[in-house]
Design a protein that fits this description.
GO terms for molecular function: DNA binding. By secondary structure, the chain is mostly helical. The chain has 4 helices and 2 strands; from the N terminus they run E-H-H-H-H-E. Helix 1 crosses helix 3 and helix 2 packs across helix 3.
């Protein structure tokens, strides 16, 4: 695990998504293509742009006392450092 943090609002969620994408070595365009969405949507999510879904989600979390955490793991496609030592 590289990073763990509480996500209290859309901006914090966007920062975590941006950091995760960057650690995977992907551009916004590459991520958008992989997900079948527009690059603008990726940019808006990473900027924490207000939206009805995220606004209501964080309102519900606050109202119910629920905390949301995000973790960013090691890059998925990075070669294992242990590969040469396994055999």
């Amino acid at each position: 695990m590289i990073l763990r943090g509480e996500v209290r609002n859309a901006e914090a969620l966007g920062r975590m998504l941006q950091q995760g994408r960057a650690l995977q070595g992907m551009s916004q365009r590459q991520l958008a293509e992989r997900l079948g969405i527009g690059q603008k949507w990726v940019w808006e999510m990473e900027q924490g742009k207000p939206g009805i879904l995220t606004d209501r989600l964080f309102e519900m979390l606050r109202a119910t006392g629920v905390r949301l955490y995000a973790e960013i793991d090691e890059p998925i496609d990075q070669p294992s450092k242990r590969k040469g030592n396994d055999g």
